[in-house]
Amino acid sequence: MAWIYLVFAGLLEIVWAFFMKKSAGFTLPVPSAITLVTMTASFILLSVAMKSLPLGTAYMIWTGIGAVGAFVVGVAVLGEAATPLRLIAAALIVAGIVLMKLSSSS
Question: Which parts of the chain span the membrane according to its record (predicted)?
């Protein structure tokens, strides 16, 4: 169950990062509220997952899901560049997430 909480925490990290961008520096109320609610939920789910997962594993996977997910949303939704080096960087993060999961005993 901890892995499910961790994945949802990572997905919520993508949501709050997107809405933080849309909040224009927390000057727009609706995106700002969505940012704060999803950020709080993400941290809560991460903390629940950390009850049974190692700190390094949980935190690395959480941030990795958020980083790669935010990159994908940036490219797909916001029209950000998908240069070869950025794609390689995202692939390396995914490889790190997979290796961390495979090395975890939980």
Answer: 33-50, 57-79, 85-102
